[in-house]
């Protein structure tokens, strides 16, 4: 894998065609759409703003493209999906998260399709695949982040259903969703000494009595995409139990390794864009004597280090994805990739801000936004410290 700010994928003509068509849509039609409506990363988007992108992306074959053919997808490899996610990240599009289905769509639902009953597929998940409905994933609580098993949301059996009570936070896509995939602890489980608590997963309609979608905290990126899901004796029918009772945590965490890896290409793409913007800045910005900024050796060294770290992060991630596609166990490599991508991307963006100077500190400038966005990745989907714990654990059991 050679270094490039615009990969060609010449070795895979089918992927090259997909990437080319995606770039055309992102840089052309979608860019024009965003400009017409004045969307920025700080815009308070509505469901009505996203639905046209879901539908158009579905028409173009991108929405849910990773899914099996039976669901209208192309059964992409993890590597191919990563390449598309990287391009979305590199485009800088405000609505890019809605093109492949990250914002309430098929990528947000994850692989729960394989756990769903025919009724759940028909009522909930296939409409998501078609861009007709949207979902969010509600796992995190105020005191249950890295240690999700500390959650206090409980599910009590009630006749032929359940009653859920609790408060979920950071439910991404919550402002646009019709239903949530909620994980709750079964009431009474884990109370005996030595007994582990049992968790179950439920499909919860967000307009159900006892369910409130509250405005969530605004992250440092400034994007308004989070909600709190507040459950107060909310009744959920037994038909909405996802998988088996007591196995909800397995469903929630079952594809963590894959998710951890697939978050990396999006960050790599955003970092790639930051490097491209920085190189453009160094070529066009004049310093004393009329020379471009890039003529200064100190700046040359900075961009050299930035490009080298990006190359290393990308190579590591795609090597792990290729191994995953071969069916190999890559749990430790996923921890390594997430750690290195998060930390190196932050260093790259820090240098990008430095090179842009005052403009890089100005709200509304893309580099300033990317810096805030990338900083979050050192915490989201598992802190860097959690990744190091996972790496160390993997090494301890390595032969």
UniProtKB/TrEMBL annotation:
Single GO MF descriptor: flavin adenine dinucleotide binding
Domain Acyl-CoA dehydrogenase/oxidase C-terminal intervals: 246-395
Record has Membrane as a keyword: no
Record-linked CDD domains: ACAD
Gene3D superfamilies: Acyl-CoA dehydrogenase/oxidase, N-terminal domain, Butyryl-CoA Dehydrogenase, subunit A, domain 2, Butyryl-CoA Dehydrogenase, subunit A, domain 3
Alphabetical keyword list: FAD, Flavoprotein, Oxidoreductase
Domain Acyl-CoA dehydrogenase/oxidase N-terminal: 14-132
GO biological process: fatty acid beta-oxidation using acyl-CoA dehydrogenase
Cofactor: FAD
Pfam families per UniProt: Acyl-CoA_dh_1 (PF00441), Acyl-CoA_dh_M (PF02770), Acyl-CoA_dh_N (PF02771)
Domain Acyl-CoA oxidase/dehydrogenase middle: start-end pairs: 136-233
GO cellular component: cytoplasm
Superkingdom as given in the UniProt entry: Bacteria
SUPFAM superfamilies, sorted: Acyl-CoA dehydrogenase C-terminal domain-like, Acyl-CoA dehydrogenase NM domain-like
Family the UniProt entry places it in: Belongs to the acyl-CoA dehydrogenase family.
Protein name: Acyl-CoA dehydrogenase family protein
Species whose genome carries this gene: Streptomyces xanthii
